[in-house]
């Protein structure tokens, strides 16, 4: 954005536009300069607020010793207090539920015979 403000012949560095779309765009910006100016100011203002919010959140962060540049996965502070974590997954033989229908009994018998 600073290039546009300080380098007044910036538009000459672009290649020629045979369709004329760039000239139409420049004409639109010139005819609606007030609207474009307020849109630009709004964007800069929102970026400034985002930066201040990020600094504020970093300052009141949950862990004073937390460093996001660590090479290992550190324990992170939960966003909710007293959060219940799911149990870890266990890899092993599948556990069949207790079904008493004929199909389940046949499959269980076949699995038991295959495991012998």
Structure description:
It is a single chain. The protein contains four helices and no strands. The model has no long low-confidence stretch (mean pLDDT 78). The radius of gyration is 32 Å and the shape is elongated. The protein is 49% helix and 0% strand. By secondary structure, the protein is an all-alpha fold.
Mean pLDDT: 78
- Strand portion: under 5%
Kindly report how far apart the N and C termini lie: 74 Å
Radius of gyration: 32 Å
- Poorly predicted parts: none
| Number of DSSP-assigned strands | 0
Give the fraction of residues assigned to helices.
Answer: 40-55%
The shape is elongated
Given the helix and strand composition, which structural class is it?
A: mainly alpha
Helix run count:
4
Biggest beta sheet summary: none
H and E order: HHHH
Helices and strands in order:
Layout: H1 2-6, H2 21-31, H3 33-59, H4 102-115
Keywords for this entry:
elongated; 0% strand; 116 residues
Question: What is the gist of this entry?
Answer:
This protein is 49% helix and 0% strand. It is an all-alpha fold and 116 residues long. This is Tetraspanin-19.
């Amino acid at each position: 954005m600073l290039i546009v403000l300080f380098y007044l012949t910036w538009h000459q560095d672009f290649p020629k536009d045979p369709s004329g779309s760039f000239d139409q765009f420049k004409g639109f910006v010139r005819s609606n300069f007030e609207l474009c100016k307020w849109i630009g100011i709004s964007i800069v203002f929102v970026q400034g607020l985002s930066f201040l919010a990020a600094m504020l959140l970093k300052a009141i962060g949950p862990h004073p010793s937390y460093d996001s540049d660590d090479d290992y996965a550190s324990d992170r502070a939960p966003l909710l207090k007293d959060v219940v974590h799911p149990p870890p997954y266990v890899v092993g033989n599948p556990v069949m539920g207790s079904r008493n229908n004929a199909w389940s009994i046949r499959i269980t018998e076949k699995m038991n015979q295959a495991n012998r």
